[in-house]
## 1
Amino acid sequence: MTGRFPDFVIIGAMKCATSTLHSQLEAQPAFCMSRPKEPNFFSDADRWARGLDWYRGLFAAAAPGDLCGESSTHYTKLPTLPDALPRLKAHMPNAKLIYIMRHPVDRLVSHYSHGWLERAIDGPIDEAIERHPELVDYGRYAMQIGPWLEAFGPASVLPVFMERLSRSPQPELERICRFLGYTAMPVWNDLLDGENASGNRLRDSRWRDAIVYHPLVTAIRRNLVPQAWRDRIKKGWQMTEKPVLRAEALARVTAVFDADLALLGEMLGTRMTCATFRAVVLERTLEWSISNSSPELGGGPSEGWWRGDPT
């Protein structure tokens, strides 16, 4: 085979600053990060069909001694994509894994905005959570990360929180690099902040792009249409206001998230709810309170202690 397998994988969660961390690690010496950022190799059928040579080839440019990594949030998208864990475990049993979390309601809103911009989701957010259960499921962190802890052991999975990464980026980057076995001193690059932000993106539209970005139309637009008019037109394709869940819908998703956060808190040796989430994750660095020898991690997947159904 050509290339090599990576040393670590950022496995999620979606809309939790995985792109930002990927870019920050890529900026450090002796790191080789995949391009594309999200290969989704172990989760997506079309990527898996490309074969191990294709995947290993993503790291063919790595120099001897480089730490290689990739970032695929599809790996923690249960129940939508169930194949990532067994496939990754079979080929990379000693991989180190990073799982980033944020307040689950904030993640849900960001996920909805992302889906709306990509035309994968339509309608108001309150209706979308009924039609798209993944908006809630991908933020049930205990449910998502539990199988990985059981398969790889807590020592191989680093919990990271977006809120803490945003407030104390340099110390958090140092903690992440120590976990990965990086011996140099990493430096957080503020110029890379804000990657993958949705605020200024335009909603996907093939016909609009085909017309607007035609060379002739581009020349006319830039030379004859005032900037104020162009900005006004663009707003019709942007999500200019942050979506807000109505009280009833917010109460429903909060109940689901609180039940999951109770399990996550047990894993981390603390207590957390949606109401206390930010304070808890900012108060101190959280690590798994369970060990590889914990009886809870001894059962097979069907007996996993992480299996709770808050719904």
## 2
Amino acid sequence: MDDIGRKSGHLMLITPERVFYAGLLGRPRERCSGAFNIYVAIEDGLWLTTSNGRKCHAEMVAVLPNTAHTIASDYRSVLSIVIEPESVCPGVLEDLAARLSGPEGAIFADRIRAAYRELRERHVGEDFSSAEFDSLCLGEALPQRVLDPRVARAILQIGRFCGEPVTAASCAAEAGLSPSRFLHLFKEETGISFRSFRAWKRARHLLHFANQDINLAHLAQDIGYPDSTHFSHSIRRFYGLKPRAIFSGSRDLAIYSSDRAGNSGLTQEAG
């Protein structure tokens, strides 16, 4: 970890399929992540309210993908794990959520806190795959979903964020399918529409730049938002915070990135 991150204890490890975050939670406003979220209290407890009426106070809570919720902490900072749903077999996240809220919950919470302590001591350049991430944080590798190659290629294209925004039409043409057939296949394989999937990945990509002194309007354009209004609205929907608030609260955050879901070298994002 760099000097700033070491002093604050705030860090974020980003891979294509996972995120580990230790840092400020921000004001409790409703958010709706496109991924599976596990929140763990560093101290005291967490308060969770979901759109379907669930309310609880615990040291750890899990929220399924695309579930609107509000999370608040008795302590300023929180630990959070993000798991992309298309990366694991169907039903795995539901089973994991049940285990996290059951008798094993305390063991999982302690393991995630231990993972945080270990990540604070790791050095840039170490390999980190999804299986290694899961083993460190959860004590086991989650079963990997095998996607149709045509959908897997489209997901890789969406994740590149270079050049023109990826469209369903371009992905369908590369797959040799009609747009309607491709959209059906994509939702069948991932459980979510192409448009919603792309919107979440675009907002997720913002995390790579969160500790940088950067022009937000230019960043919005670079990662595919049509205008600043759309950018701000989308980020608030997914994270419950305005883009400027995310950047303001991430100045002392050490960010590390792994470019691939498999073994790859970690690189530190400029901060």
